[in-house]
Amino acid sequence: MKVLIIGSTGMLGKALLKEARSRNYNPIGIARRDADICIDISNDADLKKAVLDVSPDVLINTAANINLEECEKNPSYAYLVNARPSSILSDICFQSGIYYIYISTDHYFTGDKDKKHNENHPIKLLNEYSRSKYIGEVFTLFNLHSLVIRTNIVGFRRRDNQQTFVEWIIKSIRNSLPVTLFEDYYTSSINVTQFASCLYDLINQRPSGILNVASNEVKSKKDFIEAIAFQLGIDLSTAQTGSVFDLHGVRRAESLGLDVSKAEHILGYDLPTFKQVISSIMSDYYESGAQP
What we know:
Layout: E1 2-6, H1 11-22, E2 26-31, E3 37-38, H2 44-54, E4 58-61, H3 68-73, H4 75-82, H5 84-96, E5 99-103, H6 128-141, E6 147-150, E7 153-154, H7 165-174, E8 180-182, E9 186-187, E10 190-191, H8 192-203, E11 209-212, E12 219-220, H9 221-232, E13 240-242, E14 255-256, H10 261-267, H11 274-287
Parallel strand pairs: 1-2, 1-4, 2-3, 4-5, 5-6, 6-11, 7-10, 8-13, 9-14
Antiparallel strand pairs: 9-12
Helix pairs in contact: 1-8, 2-5, 4-6, 5-6, 7-9, 9-11
């Protein structure tokens, strides 16, 4: 199977390349630099040519600007990266018989604490990031055979100048840097390696529409950081407990729990528990050569 991955140098893109190779698929990556095909996906002509030249069986679009502040300051650019390419890709894939997958977000829910939201739950667009991702979903679903994945992915990028949330947590608590434990910010985070495996299992089933793929448990950011600290044997007694509502700047959705029962039914197995997600993160951490 030939898989074209847009955003192949990002955290998810790298994991998808690795997982595809482990399954003896033929993955091809697209990014602005350091990829098999180097283009700017906001250039329609280059994007169309790349897809048609490769002629993949599956196209996975992971490209996104996830910086909330940048999206808020420059909504036009957020649209050009997070939304508009899907209008092009959805149409090309429909015309060419390519299975199109758009990786979306869980940043749509607020005021529900640790509630699990299914694919039909009403959403709220609180900022330009969520608006641009939702438009990307709409463009994707013009192709009735395409798939939108809502998720909350965590893991390692291993770039010193672009730390992921997990990398920032580990660096901060290992160096006794200030950390705030948000007890009212809830997610169903899944490790990127677990997500990549689940996604390729789903591809074999060819579902369409919107699908939640995440941990099957909802936990707070406080729970998440405390679990990582416990695995590292680090005392968090000096950490500050806080509320996400005290943050200044861009308004954030904070009740991001996802109901993954639909995906579990399609897959025929349970998605990871919170404990399994933490275990997978630590396994990736030590696999990279980090010391316990």
